[in-house]
Structure formats: C-alpha cells, structure tokens
Amino acid sequence: MTERLNTIIKTLNSEQLDGFLLFDANNITYLSGFTGHAATALVLGQHAYLLTDYRYFEQAKAECSVFEVICRDRIKQSLAELIAELLLKHGIRRLAFEADHISHSAWLGMQTHWPETDAVPFSRLVEDLRYTKDDGEIASIQQAAKIADDALHEMLKSVKAGVTERELAAELEYQMAQRGSQGPSFDTIMLMAERSALPHGVPGDRQLQHGDLLLIDFGAVVNGYHSDMTRTFVFGQADEKQRTVYQTVLGAQQAAMDALSEEVEGLKLHQASQHILNQSPYAKYQGEGLGHGLGMDVHELPFIGMGKNLMVKRNCVITIEPGIYIPGWGGVRVEDDVVLTDNGLVQLTQFPREMIEL
Amino acid sequence: MTERLNTIIKTLNSEQLDGFLLFDANNITYLSGFTGHAATALVLGQHAYLLTDYRYFEQAKAECSVFEVICRDRIKQSLAELIAELLLKHGIRRLAFEADHISHSAWLGMQTHWPETDAVPFSRLVEDLRYTKDDGEIASIQQAAKIADDALHEMLKSVKAGVTERELAAELEYQMAQRGSQGPSFDTIMLMAERSALPHGVPGDRQLQHGDLLLIDFGAVVNGYHSDMTRTFVFGQADEKQRTVYQTVLGAQQAAMDALSEEVEGLKLHQASQHILNQSPYAKYQGEGLGHGLGMDVHELPFIGMGKNLMVKRNCVITIEPGIYIPGWGGVRVEDDVVLTDNGLVQLTQFPREMIEL
C-alpha cells in the first residue's frame, strides 16, 4: 500500500498537483486497503485521508495502515464541507479529482465549496497502476478461476433434459459460493439453444433439450478480484454445424493466445483471432470485441478490439473470448483468463477448452 | 408505458423543455420497457428514442413498444455524435438531462457536440414517478418478499453449530434463486455474535456457536423489483440482554408501523421509533436511519430519518428497520417492507417478527 501511494504522490508532484480526490471504491481499496463501499479518499501532499462514517469507521481503522481515517457525522457535516476543511488546512491550490467516478450533478454541488482550489479532472491515475498486476493480485484471480473451474465441473452433474437455465445458473453460483467465492463475478449468463446467440441474455425458464447448445459465461470473486470464463457445450451429440462453429471459435482463441508470446498491441491479438474467423462461412456472425482486462473490476484496462488498441503488457490479466453468434440458431463463445509472465503465457482458467458433449 | 411517457412529456412542456436525455438504466426501463443495461434514451417532443448497439438491438425491439430503437455502430459513431444528430433533426433548443446519472467527465466530453442546444441538469423527473408504485409494481415486490420468506424458512434447516456465515449466505441465496429470484437484492448480510454489530459486514468464516446472535439482511428480485428484510435470531436460548434488546427494537418498529396509518412525513415515523429506542438503556447504540423506499433500486425515494424528511405517501413501498448495535456484543435489527394502501398498512414481508430461538 505504501509503495502504491508513493507512486501516486510522485505522479502528482510531477504534474504540479498538490492533492488528489478519489471517489471510486476499487481505486480507494487499491490505495488504502479499505474494502467497504462508502468512503472518499483525499491525498494531500504526503498525507492521506480516508473519509467515511460510523457504519464503516471501525472496519476502516482496522484495514487502513497508511491512511488517516476520519469519521464524518453525516447529519452535522456534508462531505463537501469536510473536504473543504481539509483542503484549507493543507493549503491545497491545485487538486486532481476522479471525474470519471462522480456524477456531474454531485460534482457541481461539491466544487462550489472550495473556491480557492483549482480542481483538475484527472483520469487513469490509479487505473494506470492497476493496468498490470502484482503477484498477489494474480494469485487472487487464479484462486477465483480455480473456484469457477471446480464449480462448473460440479454443476455439470445437474445437467439433464428439462432443467432450466435459471436452475443451472443457481446451481453454479451456489457451488462457487460454497467454495469461497465472495459472489458471482457478474450476473451469470446461462443460455440454451438459439438463446445462446444473445450476447447478454438473462437466464430464464427455457428447458434443456437434446441437441441444444449450452453457453455459460460466469466467474468467481476472491479478495475482490474477478475471474471470467465462458464455455459452450452441446447436450447430446453435436451436429456438424455445431462442431464447425465450435472449432472455428476455438481456433480463433488459440490464434490470439499464440500471438501473445510477448508484449503486444491488443489490435494484433484481435487481428490474429479475426484472421481465423474471417475464413469461416460464418464470418459475418463474429462478435465485436476480443477481450478485456480483469481484476478488481470485471471489465477494466486494457480493452482489446472494437477500435481500441492498448498494449497488452507483461502482467496484464486479460480475457480472450472470440465468439460466433447466429441469430435464430445459437452462439458459441470460448473465453479464458490469461496473463503474460516472465515464463510465457499462463492460462488462469483451466477447464478443458475442447468441445464437450454432455 | 405510454402513460408514463406522456406524464414526462407534460412535465417537460410545463418547464419549457423540448427534450430529455436519460442515462439511468432503471429510469430507462421504467419508461421504455427495455430491461437490458446498455442504452441511452432520448425523449424529443412527442418522439422517444432508445439508443443501443448490436448486443441489445433484438431484445430492445422486442421489449419497447413506444420507443423507436436505434442500433448504433460503436466503431463508426460515438454516442454523443448520434445524440447530436437527433437533437439537430428535431431542432431541440432546451434539453433536460439526468445529471445524477452521468459522470462529470463523460458529460464534459459529450456536451461539446451540441453547441446549439442548451442542456439543463434535471433531477428526479422519472424518480418522482417511481416515488409511488402502481399495482403491478407492488405485486412484484410482494412476490420477491414471498420468495425471501420461503427461502429463509428453508435456510433455517441448515442452521447448526459450526456452520459458517458464508455457508448460510450461500444457502439462502441458492434457495431464493431456486424459487425464481433474478438474483440477491444486494450482497447478503449474514453475521454472527458480536459481528452482528457491524452495520455493513460481509459474511466470513465465523462458525455458529451456542448463544450467538444471527443477523440476516437480504432480499430477492422479481421483474426487476427488490425486497429487503432483516431478521435477527438467537442460536439456542436467548439471554436476558438479547431478549431486552430484541423487544426494544421490535417495539420501535411497531411504533413506526402504527404511525403509518395515513400519509405522513418520514420524520414522524422516525420519531415514533426513536421514542421507544430512547427509553432503553441501550439508547445510545441505536442506528441512524429508519428506512428507505424500495423498488427498481433497493434504496430509492423516499429516504426516512437521518435528517431527511420526505413524505411517505400512499403506495410508497418502504422499509422500516430500526436497530441497536452494541460494539463487541452484537446487533439486533428487524426490517420489513410495508406499503400504505387504501385499506391501511400492508406488510409485504411476512416472516414472523417475534424473536425466534433456533
């Protein structure tokens, strides 16, 4: 934590900023250690404050080592008044603030309280630190991925004709929770047959039938870090079209993985994957993006594909998730979490990637 | 939907506004019927647009009856460019926008695209409609409450010495999902013994022991509508302090319910509850607020207590949740969802409120 904070302070100094106001809960956790969800952080010169209220005061004091925790009485003092008081005390002239993480109206109401301070919208100050992961962060994502792998193996025992999307999703989330996941990484996607073509469908009452595709996109959370994996199964024997589409998607995923043997522009990975998809008769049904960074947020830097071209650096944890979605027929997506390390590419999700007929 | 939209259009007219730009997913669902989570809505004169992309286009067309759905190619056109095009086409001069639901930085980036249009931050345009519920909305919350009641009954069968907070939380969420809940209303709070004094604790590995308090705060979701209930149990025979604190909290809750026999200021309910709590030897450990509105958001208007004083009108669905939290000893909260109807107060959560020794 101290090291992370010092990096931020150095950046502020180099930008002639003497303060930084944070609103994003994950950025605040990343810098301070506080894991609750109602706090504001203020880095003023060498001094860092965590502002919270009675609900989180004890927890914050226990979790924060470097930040001084202030307990605000929400009836007696507004957040803006408390911030103004601290800015004045430290004589802050130029303050960076997380303009991505406060609503326009909240900011309008707040900034009038510190007329002496020049507030500068600043993006990606903490996000740029979170862009690559340290060993502890990678270990947490790996643990989450392991829980997801194991839970999926267990859930598959409940797969039978007539079971609904909703029932299977509930079972999968239960198995993850029993294994120590803090919650689903996001709303589990569990879609059968032609519904698997919906990129963001919600599990419903559709019952599993022989020959159905079954697309499952889900993840676990450990220490606040997310995993994210997709597998597509066939219930019964796959027909030729299912087999062809699956092999194409798997090949596209492998091509992107192969292209990630060193630090590379995300666009290069996307192109490697598209090169395979474009040769397929189903090329026009390919999905837009290729993947995204993964960590405290389930979608974070770097984003890959869709007109974005960020570097995939060593120790970036990313998803690689090409897909083909044919309206009225169904969709196939295969998604894994990978990280480029000093020893090459490591796949954090370990569930078999080959097509499985259930 | 048409009626809701017409009410909004009337309000716009009366405020000399000729357009309204919406960002909040629940407000958009409320007006348009679209239940996905990546859309922007634009009401221009008598014409309403829903702007989304290929991921949600089919779903949006199926769900929206009154709104015209536009599928934006995210690579070719930014959201701001599309909005600017529509504002120009309809000759919009004065545009209200949901300043509470867009980040400051996103707004700064966006507004430069329509120099001809005067944008007016506007709060609570849709929120004021959502303040009171119609019969369908109340029925959905009631269904969610019923699922939560039933799931809690089932979960209690798993209560035994040595079971952990995390295991019980997983079981409870599983039972809700099996009964058709779309997901937990929020992260389930399941806290034992002295940990029950943490107003926002996270379930952990604490194992249940004889004599423990067990505080459970949770809810289900049906049709996008949330329930929210808290029960506090004693594992084994309650001691005198547990009994006293419980009866005080229950009395405070009953006093607030009794005060809600007609439309009333929220402060009146809070005072009725405080009047009981203040007579207790544990008065200084009472929680801050009394409750909140409940609907598409788990916390919404009207908020009750903590310096807030909004009217609790007929057909407002609210929680009533007084509590006593003694650090190092534990906490007791009893929370129910209620609504004042033409036939008096209706309690939507039905699980017994009296102290239960497990």
Task: Report on the architecture of this protein.
In chain A, the strands form 7 sheets. Chain A has a 6-stranded mixed β-sheet, with helices on both faces. The first copy, chain A, has a 3-stranded antiparallel β-sheet with strand order 7-8-11, covered by helices on one side. The model of chain A has no long low-confidence stretch (mean pLDDT 95). Helices cover 33% and strands 24% of the residues of chain A. Chain A has 358 residues and is an alpha+beta fold. Chain A has 10 helices and 21 strands. Chain A has helices at 2-14, 25-32, 57-63, 79-89, 104-111, 127-130, 135-155, 165-178, 240-259, 266-277, and strands at 19-22, 40-44, 47-52, 68-71, 94-97, 118-121, 189-192, 213-218, 221-222, 225-226, 229-234, 264-265, 289-293, 300-305, 308-309, 311-312, 317-320, 323-326, 330-333, 336-341, 344-347. The longest helix of chain A is centred in the middle third of the chain and has 21 residues, at 135-155. In chain A, helix 7 crosses helix 8 (165-178) and helix 9 (240-259) packs antiparallel against helix 10 (266-277). Chain A is elongated. Chain A folds into 2 domains: 2-129, Creatine Amidinohydrolase, Chain A, domain 1 (3-Layer(aba) Sandwich), CATH 3.40.350.10; 135-347, Creatine Amidinohydrolase, CATH 3.90.230. In chain A, strand 2 and strand 3 form a beta hairpin. Chain A binds chain B through residues 35-38, 54-56, 58-59, 74-75, 99-108, 121, 123, 166-167, 169-171, 173-174, 177-178, 180, 182-183, 187, 198-202, 288, 306-307, 327, and chain B through 35-38, 54-56, 58-59, 74-75, 99-108, 121, 123, 166-167, 169-171, 173-174, 177-178, 180, 182-183, 187, 198-202, 288, 306-307, 327.
